[in-house]
């Protein structure tokens, strides 16, 4: 083991796995042992990652309890080690992990709660963006609409769930007053998560608008998004919802395929 990268990868693997035998052979530690120093690194690393996850997923933590959460996060760290030096980037695959995590199998709503919390986290740290230039958009002729791509604000996330995620989120807020009852069988919800100024918001939307915004978010054409939304609901109020999304800053830019905008 000579290449710096190989040593770094081996060190990271030893710290995360707790298997120090191979790595300790390559360390010389005055006044201590390699195993003891590696244990210190391991404890600090796991503690920092656990703290970051608890900050991002406070509702998942409350739903399962601290001991369960700590055990799940410990396993998650082993299976999905951080690939970034920024702790704000860590935890994006936790929902997928929970969906496959056998001890949480009976909590079928838990992965979607994690998806909501991650969407809120990303909304909070997303870049700012100025408003849509309506005058420039107005210059696009209707015959070019099939080449038109509308851009959503960087903070926007879209979630479809079979569970009442907004209500689950609401009853776990510090200022909530009520009995905490949530009907898990209330039906499918479609949510838009965004940040307006400094506030992250969860907004329920219709399935048709969800389809419309999802198509835009995935880079589909304006015409394609409209067609998909109207196929779901022929009465979808396109002009009203489009005006609202522009006014609220949810649609912030556009490009026309083939043009040099």
Percent of residues in β-strands:
5-15%
Structural class: mainly alpha
The CATH architecture category of the largest domain equals Alpha-Beta Complex
CATH class division of the largest domain: Alpha Beta
The biggest beta sheet reads:
3 strands, antiparallel
Query: How large is the count of helical segments?
Result: 12
Strand order of the largest sheet: 2-3-4
Taken from the alpha-carbon principal axes, the silhouette is globular
Radius of gyration: 23 Å
Spell out the helices and strands N to C.
HHHHHHHHEEHEEHHHE
Spans with pLDDT under 50 lasting ≥5 residues?
none
Could you explain how this protein is built, in words?
Helix 10 packs antiparallel against helix 11 (222-232). This protein folds into two domains: 1-107, no CATH class; 126-261, Outer Surface Protein A, domain 3, CATH 3.90.930. Strand 3 and strand 4 (199-205) form a beta hairpin. It has 261 residues and is mainly alpha-helical. Strands 2-3-4 form a three-stranded antiparallel sheet. Strands 1-5 form a two-stranded antiparallel ribbon. The protein contains twelve helices and five strands.
């Amino acid at each position: 083991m000579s290449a710096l990268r190989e040593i770094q990868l081996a060190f990271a693997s030893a710290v995360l796995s707790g298997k120090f035998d191979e790595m300790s052979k390559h360390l010389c530690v005055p006044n201590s042992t390699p195993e003891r120093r590696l244990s210190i690194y391991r404890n600090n690393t796991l503690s920092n990652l656990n703290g970051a996850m608890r900050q991002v997923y406070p509702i998942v933590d409350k739903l399962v309890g601290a001991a369960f959460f700590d055990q799940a996060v410990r396993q998650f760290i082993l299976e999905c080690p951080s690939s970034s030096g920024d702790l704000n980037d860590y935890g994006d695959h936790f929902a997928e992990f929970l969906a496959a995590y056998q001890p949480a199998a009976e909590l079928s709503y838990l992965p979607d709660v994690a998806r909501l919390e991650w969407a809120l986290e990303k909304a909070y740290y997303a870049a700012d963006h100025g408003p849509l230039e309506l005058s420039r958009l107005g210059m696009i002729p209707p015959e070019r609409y099939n080449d038109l791509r509308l851009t959503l604000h960087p903070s926007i996330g879209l979630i479809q769930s079979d569970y009442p995620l907004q209500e689950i989120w609401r009853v776990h807020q510090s200022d909530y007053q009520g009995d905490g009852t949530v009907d898990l069988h209330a039906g499918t919800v479609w949510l838009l998560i965004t940040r307006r100024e400094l506030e992250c918001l969860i907004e329920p939307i219709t399935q048709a608008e969800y389809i419309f915004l999802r198509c835009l978010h995935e880079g589909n054409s304006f015409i394609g998004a409209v067609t998909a939304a109207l196929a779901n609901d022929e009465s979808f109020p396109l002009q009203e919802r489009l005006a609202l999304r522009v006014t609220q800053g949810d649609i912030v830019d556009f490009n026309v395929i083939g043009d040099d905008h």
